[in-house]
Write a structure and sequence with these properties.
By secondary structure, the protein is α/β, with parallel strands linked by helices. It has two domains: 189 residues, Rossmann fold (3-Layer(aba) Sandwich); 181 residues, Glycogen Phosphorylase B (Rossmann fold, 3-Layer(aba) Sandwich). It is 44% helix and 16% strand. It is built from 15 helices and 13 strands. The strands form two sheets. A seven-stranded parallel sheet has the order 3-2-1-4-5-6-7, sandwiched between helices. Helix 3 crosses helix 4, helix 8 packs across helix 13 and helix 11 packs across helix 14. It is elongated and about 65 Å long.
């Protein structure tokens, strides 16, 4: 990225999100702010509360505002967005995900001056169905309020057009990325297993995801029960937290595999866990561009993922890993057993995964692309005058 000219004022950017919990879009915003801190003057506007990332960002001098959305559609949130944007004279408003975009778009008429509204779409729900009212509202009105729209993968871009009704010739793809240097750290799997207290004689399948129905953990545990019957040297590591933990622990007990399924909680040592992992599995019923999938690939771990959303855009079946159908426990089990039975092939897939992340999914490239767009928008506004 070009170094900043100290005589040029930082670009005033408002980020609009649901909250600042530890999740993909939120972590991307935090990384964007930290990387561009000398180039932008940021504020984060949260619809539904603050979240754990908000505290650390506040300590770094980044204002995070809770807009206090009430249940249902709350037009007052758009008025609050407009007030914050107006007071802070924001030049760019970057909304992540559809609902934050909707409130940011409806704020435009109330600000009294021009700004650049950028909408980034991340994940999609399954089944991906919206009401006709929402579809036509997007088609006739809301999509026209965005100055630019992008998505983290082709699947999300296509959904905006086909499901949401966005009338745009091109919704550009800005792929998610990760900090490559944080993965494939010096040290061996043996030392990482020792540090984590894992059995050195065991191989480990890992899933790193919140315990939520969309992540399909129940399917993974069912698949692992088939693996456990055939491979007594393999355990399952589940990293994360969430409302389903108790029911998933009960499922493991009922299948007789509780001693081989390790619930590790929310962790800050994910790179070490991945270094100790033989196969990474993502059993989601819906995904866009998973950061944990990219982290596993960057760690040279072969992957087994469901063929949903953007997974198949990241992982080429048979190259960096294997794809399985959504909800197919036997299919996930077969794919894992295939890799467990052929360590050389699994290792080759892991190395190809690392190379793919190096080539296509580095965080610095994602953030640099966002900044280029912020800069172009701010320059245009400053040259033309931002007041209506």
């Amino acid at each position: 990225m070009t170094e900043t000219n100290n005589s040029v004022a930082p670009i005033r950017v408002a980020f609009v999100l649901h909250n600042m919990q530890v999740a993909g879009a939120e972590m991307l915003v935090a990384a964007t702010i930290r990387r561009l801190r000398s180039l932008i003057d940021p504020v984060i506007l949260c619809l539904d509360g603050l979240g754990s990332l908000a505290e650390s960002l506040n300590m770094e001098g980044v204002p995070v505002v809770n807009l206090g959305r009430r249940p249902g559609f709350d037009l007052k949130v758009s008025l609050r967005v407009a007030a914050e944007v107006r007071v802070r004279r924001c030049e760019v408003v970057h909304a992540h995900q559809y609902t934050p975009f909707t409130y940011a778009a409806l704020a435009k008429p109330f600000t009294g001056f021009r700004y650049h509204l950028m909408f980034t779409e991340h994940g999609r729900h399954y089944p991906d169905v919206v009401s006709r009212k929402r579809y036509w509202s997007n088609r006739i009105f809301l999509s026209s309020l965005a100055d630019e729209v992008n998505a983290v993968c082709e699947f999300s871009s296509r959904s905006l057009k086909e499901v949401e009704g966005f009338l745009r010739a091109a919704i550009e793809i800005i792929p998610n990325g990760i900090e490559l240097a944080n993965y494939n750290l010096p040290g061996s799997a043996v030392s990482c297993k020792a540090a984590l207290g894992l059995d050195q004689k065991k191989r480990h399948i890992a899933c790193i995801a919140r315990f939520h129905p969309v992540k399909g953990h129940a399917t993974l545990i069912q698949a692992f029960s088939d693996i456990a019957r055939l491979k007594d040297d393999v355990d399952l590591l589940l990293v994360g937290g969430g409302p389903l933990r108790d029911s998933l622990e009960q499922q493991a007990k009922s299948l007789g595999i509780a001693g081989r399924v390790h619930f590790m909680g929310i962790r800050k040592d994910v790179p070490a866990i991945l270094q100790a992992t033989d196969i990474f599995v993502l059993s989601s019923i819906s995904e866009a561009a998973s950061l944990t999938l990219l982290e596993a690939m960057a760690s040279s771990v072969p992957v087994v993922v469901t063929d949903v959303g953007g997974n198949g855009e990241i992982v080429r079946n048979g190259v960096e890993g294997l794809l399985a159908p959504r909800g197919d426990a036997p299919g996930i089990a077969r794919a894992c057993l295939e890799l467990l039975s052929d360590p050389d092939r699994a290792s080759a897939m892991g190395l190809k995964g690392r190379a793919r992340v190096e080539q296509c999914f580095q965080l610095k490239n994602t953030i640099d692309e966002y900044y280029r767009r912020y800069e172009a928008a701010a320059n245009k506004l400053r040259n033309n005058g931002s007041r209506i």
